[in-house]
Amino acid sequence: MISSRAYRLEQVRFQYSGSGFELQAEDLEIEAGKIIALVGPNGAGKTTMLMLLGLLLKPGAGTLEFFGQNPWTDGRLLDMRRELALVTHHPYLFRGTIFDNLVFGLKVRGMDRAGFGALVRETLAMVELDGFAEAPVSELSAGQAQRVALARAMILKAKVLLLDEPTANIDAGMVQRMEAVITEFNSRFQTTIIFSTHNFSQAFRLATEVMHFSDGKQVKYSHENFFSGKAETDGKMSWIEPKPGARIVFPGKYNSHVTCVISPEKIEALSVNESQKIYGQNQFSGTVSRLEMAENNRALVRVSGDLNFRLNLSLQEIEQKKIALSRKILLRFPPEAVEVIN
Amino acid sequence: MIFTELAQAIWVSLKTSGAAAIIASAMAVPLALFLSANEFPGKRFLLLLNQTWMAAPTVVIGLLLYFLLSRTGPLGSFGLLYSQTAMTMGQTILILPLIIGFAYTALSQVDARARITALSLGASPAQAGWMVMKEAAFPLLVAILAGFARAISEVGVAMMLGGNIRGYTRNITTAIALESSKGEFMSGVILGVILLSLTLGINLLVNLGLRSRD
Description:
Chain A is of the alpha+beta class and 342 residues long. In chain A, 23% of the residues lie in helices and 35% in strands.
């Protein structure tokens, strides 16, 4: 029976030999067909997690299942590896032409060469490199090389696509188009896409779920609100200003770069009448930019303003406070609701 | 030295040294690939042994094999002494560490991402290894040609194991040695020029390859 769950990790541990860093993944499940973002600072374990999910690293402990099977014990490791494709950060292109690179994965899978031409043309069109099939890879820019690496993975139409910072070397204009390619690919082929990024905005823009990693541990697995910045303190309370004038206050004494997270459930939306009360700290205004249904008669409300937030409100509350798309809204949360994660 | 003898000597050189280069490469390149892709206890020691072996005098290698292949030796029953096969065996052992060393360097310089990339796209370990070798194709060819050049220009192994039999195991280098000992210096010089031309041609290819890689 084919599992609808792409991955299940249970008590997984991985450590590079001679390194003090250990990646830990407790109970983690990734549903098939979703787009998942891995976020976190450098050294947090995102790449290691992608390598584990790519079945290129074997967990030192715990269980990793891929579509319901254990690749390390079921004797089908190579078959399972051929059901996914990984694009590494700073990808390596093989000598030769773009065509040579794109067909590599097809060749190792023993696919019929008669269809290579059409597949290459179709895939290059997706990444806006039409007509470049015979171009030598030595003549490509960094951005073009990144797109070729993406195309080389996409052409395989694998069940899972793992992307390590897929838009890192691409200029801003092309980034938006490549993000559209990624979401279109997921939609068209129901491919599970797991990508790592430093860009929280990108993560929330593309992903259905976001996982945050810090020091090798998965910190959260939900639609949290993340903010980073250089913290300042008065000795009792600290604050960061992710944008000038937009200050997030939290208890404690921090004076280095921190990442804070605020659970959507802990943010209060104020009705038009209540907005007259000046609450002071951690009070922001914005416009409702998105409403998504969530479980248990609740909805995720995305608010765009100086800072962007996600709130998790009951449908009743949304109705009472007349929260609707494009309506202005005031929101607030107590300093204690802010969790400093690194 | 008459023309037919000259032609035979050149043919024996090309045949025995060519075979040695092919056999040595078939062993050396996969071993070099394994060494370049893996870390294990004793690896540095093995590389050191290989470097030491590279500098072994040809007569020493010839002597060791002579003892093995002589009638009283453990492989004497095969009757290989004073044959082209014995020459090929000796030259294979002579150039094996050279090709291992050059191939190891060539493969170690392939970007480490090449293998991971191949695996990440569904290649088996063997397919990934083959891709790494393709990425180092020219340096590997340079390594093999360097081994061939070394084999074709050595005299110690050929003399001790081949016996310099006219029309059979006499190659260019043993012919030079013979002609010189007979006082036929002009013949020796001509043979030397031919050998030099062959090795010059090979070294030219090696250098052109290195320059294009740089």
